[in-house]
Design a protein that fits this description.
Elements lengths: L1 H10 L1 E6 L3 E6 H14 L3 E7 L9 E7 L1
Antiparallel strand pairs: 1-2, 3-4
């Protein structure tokens, strides 16, 4: 992971797959904008832990997400 970060910083960007253009070089500024857009558009969820009734010892839990 550190090597990928180093390479991204050296070339001031990274390659992403954009349909229909295919593989495209994106600057670090554009990557930040794409990330912010993704972060603000994804659905809000709240994780809820609940007992797994299929497990008789009740040790395991499953994670379920619901929209708020």
């Amino acid at each position: 992971m550190q090597e990928l970060i180093r390479l991204s910083n050296l070339c001031q960007g990274w390659w992403v797959w954009k349909d229909p253009q295919g593989e495209t070089f994106v600057s670090l500024n554009e990557i930040q904008q794409l990330y912010e857009s993704w972060k603000n558009s994804r659905p809000k969820v709240t994780p809820i832990l609940e007992d797994n009734t299929e497990n008789p010892n009740k040790i395991m839990y499953k994670l379920r997400q619901i929209k708020i």
